[in-house]
Automatic annotation (TrEMBL):
Keywords: Flavoprotein, Oxidoreductase. Homodimer. The keyword Oxidoreductase applies. Pfam families: Pyr_redox_2. Signal peptide: none annotated. Residues 4-149, 176-285 form the FAD/NAD(P)-binding domain. Its cofactor is FAD. This is Thioredoxin reductase.
């Protein structure tokens, strides 16, 4: 059974960044990735210096190519099914879908999060014409007739005001939920129309939105927009390892990637259970790698 200094689970920007830093520190690292990263549906990634507009898979390919320069790093295209701690030897056992097991001293969880939508039709357009982050995709939708699709008063208020920076042609769809008078008045002053009727369907071609159909029979033309998903962690590794979370579902850490469980580290969206930019996630991975390497150094010196 192969033994590593650290196993990194998740090949998004956080996991890749951490693996690069640890490889450069001459640590024996295994990076596990199964290609289910959240941004795989996105056509372009934005806001990462020197890589603005890059396709997510191209970003990952470049990073993996860079890792090949470090002989102590292994990139394994396997799905991790479970992680257990061997308290007697202070090690972790990682089990994969192809019935392989690996041993490691430290483990970094960088598996990210996934979206859930109240409207199943959103998935057909998500990443092409409907997005969740204006900072990531607002520029491409600037000045277009956009839809804001959300059901929570606070979320609608926040997202609409933010997107207004990129386009003044906004229509809010609450899918059957009512807005407070204050929010409605704020929107009215900016000539932002609100439809509270239930959404019957979304219409478009090849992922590009054309209109929003309501149960009232109205069909409102829109060419893109922003939505508010809910997010969840796609696996139970943190729970299996008994890592503690706060009242909001975020992982409790020391702000340097260390969780409440010795030897377990976390980085990127996995930590906050909320969305993050490529650059911030990569920085989180780099920071966690510093902690991992220093802890290994102190353990062995």
């Amino acid at each position: 059974m192969k033994k590593y200094d650290c196993i990194v689970i998740g090949g998004g920007p956080a996991g890749l960044s951490a693996t690069l830093t640890l490889g450069r520190a001459r640590r024996k690292i295994a990076l596990f990735d199964n290609g289910t990263n959240r941004n795989r549906v996105t056509q372009e990634s934005h806001g990462f210096l020197t890589r603005d507009g890059i396709k997510p898979q191209q970003f990952k390919n470049i990073a993996i190519k860079e890792l090949e320069s470090y002989p102590s790093v292994s990139v394994l295209n396997e799905t991790v099914m479970g992680v257990n701690k061997d308290d007697q030897h202070d090690l972790f056992l990682v089990h994969t879908s192809n019935n392989q097991s690996y041993i490691t001293e430290k483990i970094l969880l960088a598996t990210g999060i996934q979206e859930e939508f109240s409207l199943t039709q959103i998935r057909q357009y998500y990443g092409k014409s409907l997005f969740s982050c204006p900072y990531c995709d607002g520029w491409e939708l600037r000045d277009k007739p956009l839809a804001i699709i959300a059901e929570n008063d606070e979320h609608i208020n926040h997202l609409t005001k933010l997107v207004f920076n990129w386009s003044k042609d906004l229509i809010v769809f609450t899918n059957g939920h009512q807005l407070s008078n204050k929010v409605q008045n704020d929107f009215k002053s900016k000539k932002i129309k609100v439809y509270t009727a239930v959404i019957k369907n979304l219409h478009g071609n090849h992922g590009y939105l054309e209109s929003v159909e309501l149960e009232t029979g109205e069909n409102i033309l829109r060419s893109g927009g922003f939505v508010v998903p809910s997010f969840y962690r796609p696996n139970k590794f943190a729970k299996q390892l008994k890592c503690q979370v706060d009242e909001n579902g975020g992982m409790i850490t020391d702000d340097a990637g260390r969780t409440t469980e010795s030897g377990v580290y976390i980085a990127g969206e996995t930590e906050k259970a909320g969305p993050s930019s490529l650059m911030i996630a990569a920085a989180d991975g780099n920071k966690a790698a510093f902690s991992i390497n220093m802890d290994i150094t102190l353990d062995r010196f």
